[in-house]
Amino acid sequence: MSGLVGVYGHPEAANLVYLGLYALQHRGQMGAGIVASDGQRMPWHRGLGLVSDVFDREIIQQLKGASAIGHNSNSSHELAQNMQPLVFELGEDGLAIAHSGNFTNASELRRQYGEKGAIFQSRTDTEILAHLMAGYRGGIVDQVKHALSVVRGAYSLLFLNRTSMIATRDPHGFRPLVLGRMHEATIVASETCALDLVGAEYVREIEPGEVLVVTKDGLQSFYVVSAHPSTRCIFEYVYFARPDSIVYGRNVYQVRKEFGRQLAREHPVDADIVVPVPDSGVPAALGYAEQSGLPLEFGLVRNHYVWRTLIEPHDAIRHFGAKVKLNAQREVLAGKSVVVVDDSIVRGTTSRKIVTMLRAAGAKAVHMRIGSPPTKCGCYHGNTPNSNELIASNKSTETIRDFIAADSLAYLSELGMYAALKADECSGFCSTCFMQ
Ligand code: AMP
């Protein structure tokens, strides 16, 4: 998962991209980068850290030009050279690429190019695109067409050269990408919250398999690979996307709230209050509370400034890691039977700490409710950890309940999830993470 923003046809393109990346910070905190184009030069800047750490006013002012693309990285390759957009000298027009996703045939392609003597400057899958494009004659559009006909996997991509910007989404539509307008300028972004911040108007989703070319003559849209059955990542609705975004045509907050309502129908509890795990569990908890008629109380409060490593005193503080992020309010919890709602359980360590924390603050009973089905299978597109790290991959709900020490534990069913989405079973979504 990464964040993408591109702007074409605005005198402050880099500044708008910077703001868009700021709105999409939740999609990647490892590093960020922006490449601009003024039609002749393509200045760029990349670095490790949050958007606000990587850029300052002076740097943004140096990124001159009416078009720019940017990227928030979640890469595990913690070196600045692996941050994006990647920039290449390609023909007369230069090339920058920003990529959210991975290619399932990346290792095979890397090996093939390696055997031919190609040198890679990064560990990213993205760089393969540059090699595919460089080996193909023609302009950027033909080169992109060729590269897309070779790579497989889940991706949203932005390309920039001196004269054009290209945005594309994989033929299954696994990753979100939306199109917006701002006066004469075109803007594309992973989520609509980036459009909102800069005051752009949401036009539509970029369609699965669509290649959108933006030049001074306007927008041109075509499809390289014929339509595939769409498999949009359902975890965008569970956890990845910001609740104020429209993803796959729906407001994420309302979807999550509906998951909570359905969860309450499926797994009611005789309790005193509903407590969300902030922030990701809030909409589902609200839906649960509304459906069950129980009051919603913020029994857990989150510190929003926990990005940087903290120095713990020698005398270890009990449950330090959990307390840094969340604090349980005794005044709200003491003597209460609590339904605590979170969006998902991955390794189970957070839930375990939360249950301990709620009990330590006086909760009489703790009933854990999860607004998605058990996450059992590692994502082959790299969105969730490997199966061996997922507690539900080989443990029953009862064993997990025992591990997290809750009085009861229940998950939203997969059918319930589709019912909440008012979709036919599995229609158009990838939900392999819920399969054994
Ligand atoms: P865990 O302690 O590993 O069970 O983490 C559970 C928490 O991680 C939940 O509260 C989710 O909000 C969050 N979460 C869910 N999916 C992911 C993911 N792919 N990467 C990071 N955090 C996640």
Automatic annotation (TrEMBL):
Its cofactor is Mg(2+); [4Fe-4S] cluster. Pathway: Purine metabolism; IMP biosynthesis via de novo pathway; N(1)-(5-phospho-D-ribosyl)glycinamide from 5-phospho-alpha-D-ribose 1-diphosphate: step 1/2. Binds 1 Mg(2+) ion per subunit. Mg(2+) binds at S280, D342, D343. Pfam families: GATase_7, Pribosyltran. Coiled coil: none annotated. It catalyses: 5-phospho-beta-D-ribosylamine + L-glutamate + diphosphate = 5-phospho-alpha-D-ribose 1-diphosphate + L-glutamine + H2O. Its EC number is 2.4.2.14. Keywords: Glutamine amidotransferase, Glycosyltransferase, Iron, Iron-sulfur, Magnesium, Metal-binding, Purine biosynthesis, Transferase. One of its GO terms (molecular function) is magnesium ion binding. SUPFAM superfamilies: N-terminal nucleophile aminohydrolases (Ntn hydrolases), PRTase-like. [4Fe-4S] cluster binds at C233, C379, C430, C433. One of its GO terms (biological process) is purine nucleobase biosynthetic process. Residues 2-217 form the Glutamine amidotransferase type-2 domain. Catalyzes the formation of phosphoribosylamine from phosphoribosylpyrophosphate (PRPP) and glutamine. In the C-terminal section; belongs to the purine/pyrimidine phosphoribosyltransferase family. This is Amidophosphoribosyltransferase.
